[in-house]
Amino acid sequence: MAAEGWIRQVSPFIGDEESRAVQRVVASGWITEGPESAAFVEELKEYVGAPYAVLAPNGTLALALGLLALDIGPGDEVLVPDTTFVGSASAVCLIGAKPVFVDVEPDTFQIDLADAERRTTSATKAVMPVHLYGTACDMDAVAEFADRRGIRVVEDAAQGMGVRFRDQHVGTFGDVGCFSFFADKTITTGEGGLVTCRDGNTYERLRMLRNQGRMNSGTFIHPSIGFNLRITDMQAALGRVQLRKLGAVIEKKQALYAAYAEAFRGIHGIRVLGAAEHANHVPFRCVIVVDDATALITHLTERQIEPRTFFYPLHLQPAFASLRGPSSPSDRGFPNAETGYARGICLPIHGGVTVDDVSRIADAISAGLRPTPLP
User: Fold this and answer.
1) What is the pLDDT of residues 56-69, one digit of tens each?
2) Of the candidates 127, 126, 122, which has an alpha carbon nearest to the alpha carbon of residue 138?
3) Beta bridge partners of 373
4) In angstroms, rounded to a whole number, what is the distance separating the alpha carbons of residues 192 and 242?
5) Residues 306 and 279 in one domain
6) Are 264 and 44 in contact, with CB atoms under 8 Å apart?
7) What contacts 145, CB < 8 A, 6 or more positions away?
8) In terms of residue numbers, what domain contains 322?
9) Which 8-state DSSP code applies to residue 39?
10) Which of 50, 223, 308, 346 could join 196 in a cystine, given CB atoms 3.0 to 4.6 angstroms apart?
């Protein structure tokens, strides 16, 4: 075992300033959703360039809220890339619709729209591009596909804060865009999410759905069915500090990614994922592809380095077994998602990682990829 101590996968970029902001909210006595939350929404709208937005408790519920606001529900199908966190698909299930899994592209692991064409049916009502691993889907192609099919676009930008496609922030192209502020995201509120939209009517639907079927709290007349999908001002206060630090966080992430890329230069058998075409890159992790991820993950773990695999393909998830069957297209044809899981590794990029840590990780990977000499 290495003596240096563990290099962990996740560590939020938070400190004393966030603690003081939360303490001020607690001292004020207004801890539910209130002025801090209202200010946080306005600041987020300005940053991403969205005309409308509402907060949500987390990324999964942000997706469910967005789908509901578009009147997607039982009997409808939503195209979801096979390589993504399970919440992308479980949000579809939560509102009673059916996720239909789509293979991903081999170079970027973003949704493969040619495969989406093959899986579209008369029940398809939306496509969910997921901006994966800190870069963007081809939103020109997504828009063209959706327009031609007459379906909605629900952007999963959970990992996408700071990510742009053709200089426009992700989450602002589709009918709705959904972000996560979970602890491992570029900015965090512990748990939390955001739904953006471009249409005033959709915005009114979002407001009603997230606040118990009413526009404003404090009244007990509820014009429609809604839910409690609010957050707290304690979370919002933390998030506002995080948003002010976003530029520095992105700079640190990109510097660590550059250090990884330089350290991996010349190591045979490794591919480092970066920005997709016409997009920038705000690294969610340092993502690499090797021949045998399982063996290398074991090697790294033995050296007190905490890697992670790619997301397990959705079509293989036990939770979605009911969607599989001999006549279902969800059973066949996901070679790129399966290859990504077999060969992909996510390496840590966060505030606790140093350039020396990157060198240590690279040395361990170089040793792990080197063939073992025969006795």
Assistant:
1) 999 999 999 999 99
2) 127
3) none
4) 13
5) yes
6) no
7) 113, 116, 117, 127
8) 246-369
9) H
10) 50
Q: Which residues of 174-213 are buried (b: 16+ CB within 10 A; e: fewer)?
A: bbbbbbbbbebbbbbbbbbbbbbbeeeebbebbbbbbbbe
pLDDT in tens, 181-218: 999 999 999 999 999 999 999 999 999 999 998 988 88
Tell me: do 206 and 283 sit in the same domain.
Answer: no
How many Cα neighbours within 13 Å face the side chain of 213?
Answer: 7
CB 129 within 8 A of CB 66: no
Number of domains in the chain: 2
pLDDT digits (tens, 9 = 90+) for 15-28: 999 999 999 999 99
Are 74 and 136 in the same domain? Answer: yes
Single out the residue of 266, 269, 283 nearest to residue 353, CA to CA.
Answer: 283
Burial 77-113 (b: 16+ CB within 10 A, else e): bbbbbbbbbebbbbbbbbbebbbbbbbbbeebbbbbb
Q: Give pLDDT, residue 325.
A: 57
Residue 46's pLDDT is what?
A: 98
What is the distance of C-alpha 34 from the center of its chain? 26
Residue 375 contacts residue 37 (beta carbons within 8 Å) = no
**Phi and psi (nearest 5°) for 287?**
-105, 125
CB of 179 within 8 A of CB of 161?
A: yes
Judge whether 312 and 341 are in contact, CB under 8 Å. Answer: yes
For residues 189 and 250, what is the distance between their CA atoms, to the nearest angstrom? 17
Average pLDDT over residues 113-119: 97
Nearest one of 211, 205, 245 to 226, comparing CA atoms: 211
Tokens of residue 137, six digits: 């889907």
Exposed/middle/buried for residue 304 (C-beta within 10 Å: 0-12, 13-18, 19+): middle
The answer to whether residue 374 is domain-embedded is no
> For the residues of 49-71, what is the DSSP string, one character each?
T-SEEEEESSHHHHHHHHHHHTT
Does the residue 2 lie in any domain? no
d(CA 61, CA 28): 28
